[in-house]
């Protein structure tokens, strides 16, 4: 995703959305770039994953007073370029309020726009695992790219979204990177600015970003959601901060050299406008059992797939530590071992960094992993980005 390395898999119940019937590629004329049409800044965004409704957290559970944009995750794509809902029951059928008044997360989200008319909603396509598997086949053919773009336009218009977010994890070579940019061009033509938003979630690692012409992609996109988290996890040999703001002077492994600041610097060096970058913040922590500090070996992972949501951190019996130099928090003890995460202090640091660097703002994966009290990450971010609204009612 705009997501972690591994996310829960939505149900395979699907609902196909047929695109306009056109076989002629419409990519011959390049769309206008959007350098001067970026959304009003700063942005405080969250991703809403549709499977969270099964835990009693529909879109209406989000703390929308402090949110400017909601990314709805996920729609998927078939090899012919047709978009479809990843879980029809969650998306269009489940009884949200228990009284039959609102059916499905999509209708819940649409109804919220009546109460919060300034919020922008964007449909995210892809995600980790199966969600990104079709992208190489879909994007290598111009006709199929056009079909994808036309299908996206229909879905956006039918459900009242303000745009599309592409979460392809990840183009694996320069040829796929070229096809990714061509897909963005097809989408931009069907979803012209400023009427529609076109965004994309991209990883923080140079190993993936160097396959993409970021400068060209940036001219087509309104926003790039930089996934500045999951720097360390089960795939690394030693434990470490998974979303540190700053890189250490002496990193203990290659993963530890990556940080929010290094990812932003790399994107800017490749021609991405700072105001188009949203800094990603995880509303979850990563667990390393048997470890007590950064750089330790570990024996396994606690929680669900090695993670604990922020609303359940710190773990009972754990001691919280604030690493100001790294811009990271971790707790040690309890059932999580060493758990690396963000709290209100580090989010405030990241929001201040975003303002100082002229970034577009912050986004959170996910909005449902946050608390709704004084420790809220989303609210802390909003109040840091919008200090003039510091007296906003709870």
TrEMBL record:
Gene3D superfamilies per record: 3.10.50.10, Glycosidases
- Species classification: Eukaryota, Fungi, Dikarya, Ascomycota, Pezizomycotina
Q: Where is the composition biased (Polar residues)?
A: 1-19
Annotated GO MF terms: chitin binding; endochitinase activity
Q: Which Pfam families match?
A: Glyco_hydro_18
Task: Name the PROSITE patterns on file.
Answer: GH18_1, GH18_2
Give the reactions, separated by semicolons, that this protein catalyses.
Random endo-hydrolysis of N-acetyl-beta-D-glucosaminide (1->4)-beta-linkages in chitin and chitodextrins
Region Disordered, as annotated, extends over 1-38
Q: Where is the GH18 domain?
A: 42-388
Stated EC number for the protein is 3.2.1.14
This protein is called what? chitinase
Q: Does the keyword Ligase apply?
A: no
